[in-house]
Design a protein that fits this description.
alpha/beta, six-stranded mixed beta sheet, 19 helices
């Protein structure tokens, strides 16, 4: 694998790829960045020698929770002695975060320890899982760039093929694959026969592409179901359950995690207390993960309860998993979370509210930014009224300017200012926008870094600072705290 690799050459090549092949993360759903359909990906898979046939896989879709479920599953499987690949998106700081391999907890294969610590193969931001090496990326892109250019692949199709080929070359025992968007037309849906398909949750997001109703969105997610492959849905809700049942009928076994009693569910309270993923919504995700592992037991006889628990409890540590209710600092407490739609933020804001109401923290400061294509109107009524808001513009052209967020925040506040505050909860009335005395007026700040600086200056040691609203907000904040 020697095609003249140099660090400078790698950086220049990657920069060229980002420039020539727009990504949804950077450029939104513009022409060229999002290319639904499987024809190009199937052709790429064939040209690469059908790498997906070299490893077993688990395919995961969902509006929210799929990243957490994917990482928890990968960490558990790795802790049970399986060499586990993980493909997720988006990334926060380095696009190589999208593809990692978690070696077995005690990998006794020759040279495993040396390989995991080899130059150019750093751990995933501090986790045991290792990122794909720069050398491999450089060799792959150099080899395949003419084919990629000729066939006009999207950035996501390129990274999907890169991950699949790497997993095959590395001989993983199993790969956990997260969809990028939807499911039916997602590039990852070339997986022919995964061991299990999972849909974590259904909520309103990307409606212009997936549909304006929960039923339509569920139909797109259910597109990953495969013949005779068990399908697991995180929760049964009236709007979407019939969609999944219709899709699965005569095709595959269907399970709903919230109706299952997986083997380790009696230990869930302890697991949740000890987990390094501390958002309340992880209770739902945990049940989905444990249910998935129960279904997978026939395929993996090595699954052992103690190892499963250890893997799940240390998911963030093992996988280098960032931005999911991540505690970045104590005194004051700083938490970052990439939740960006109303479905996710309803839970996050409620958890923030409860910490203030219980006296766990004495003040709440929220550093918030959002992409221009997100439904801010659905999020405004959910925001805790007891917070000081610092609206920021993250470093992406997709961002809604902080001044515009502030303008719409104030307009909403003014419209509902006359409403009473009794019984106000962050998941309920728009009256939550009537700020108590002592809360600082909301501000618009040019950058996330400046907003974080101001938040730390306003905070006391007992304050709680929440950084969120977008992957890009968290991505801008992480380097300020991570060493």
């Amino acid at each position: 694998m020697d095609r003249g690799f140099t660090e400078a050459g790698y950086e220049a090549l990657v920069e060229d790829i980002f420039r020539r092949f727009p990504s949804v993360q950077k450029d939104g759903f513009s022409a060229g960045a999002y290319k639904p359909g499987l024809e190009r990906m199937r052709a790429f898979e064939e040209a690469l020698g059908h790498p997906t046939r070299a490893f077993r896989s688990i395919h995961i879709a969902g509006t929210n929770g799929k990243g957490s479920v994917a990482n928890m599953l990968a960490s558990a499987l790795s802790s049970c002695g399986l060499r586990t690949g993980l493909f997720t998106s988006p990334h926060l700081m380095d696009f190589r975060e999208r593809m990692v391999i978690a070696p077995p907890e005690a990998d006794g294969t020759p040279g495993a320890k040396e390989k995991a610590n080899a130059p150019g193969v750093p751990s995933a931001s501090g986790g045991r899982a290792r990122l794909i090496s720069r050398e491999y990326v450089y060799e792959f892109l150099t080899r395949w760039l003419p084919w990629i250019t000729e066939n006009q692949l999207s950035f996501f199709e390129i990274t999907t093929g890169l991950a699949f080929k790497w997993f095959a070359d590395e001989g993983v025992d199993v790969a956990v694959i997260e969809t990028g968007l939807g499911g039916r037309l997602d590039s990852t849906n070339i997986l022919e026969k995964p061991l299990l398909t999972v849909v974590t949750s259904i909520g309103f997001d990307h409606m212009a592409l997936l549909g304006n109703t929960l039923e339509q969105i569920a139909g797109e997610k259910a597109g990953i179901f495969k013949a005779r492959v068990p399908a697991l849905v995180g929760e049964r809700i009236p709007e979407t359950a019939p969609v999944f049942e219709t899709k699965a009928r005569g095709l595959c076994p269907l399970f709903f995690a919230d109706e299952m009693s997986p083997a380790l569910w009696d230990q869930s309270a302890r697991i949740l207390q000890e987990m390094d993923l501390q958002a309340r919504v992880q209770a739902k995700n945990l049940r989905t993960v444990l249910s998935a592992l129960d279904i997978l037991r026939p395929a993996f006889p090595s699954l052992e309860e103690g190892a499963i628990v250890d893997g799940i409890v240390h998911t963030a540590r093992n996988m280098g998993f960032h931005g999911r209710w991540e505690r970045l600092q104590q005194s004051p407490t700083v938490i970052a979370d990439i939740g960006h739609n109303a479905h996710a933020l309803r839970h996050n804001f409620a958890q923030l509210h409860s910490r203030i109401a219980s006296g766990e923290n004495d003040a709440l400061i929220i550093v918030y930014g959002i992409m221009a294509d997100k439904d801010l109107d659905a999020i405004l009524p959910l925001m805790p009224r007891e917070a000081t808001y610092l609206f920021a513009t993250p470093s992406t052209p997709r961002a809604l300017p902080a001044a515009e967020i502030l303008k719409r925040f104030k307009a909403f506040h003014q419209t509902h200012a006359a409403r009473p505050t009794e019984g106000c909860t962050p998941s309920g009335a728009s009256a939550c926008f009537i700020a108590p005395e002592g809360v600082h007026p909301p501000q618009a700040v040019d950058s996330v870094a400046e907003a974080v600086k101001q938040a730390l200056e306003l905070a006391t040691p007992q304050s709680l600072i929440y950084i969120g609203g977008s992957t890009f907000v968290v991505a801008d904040a992480l380097p300020l705290f991570l060493k």
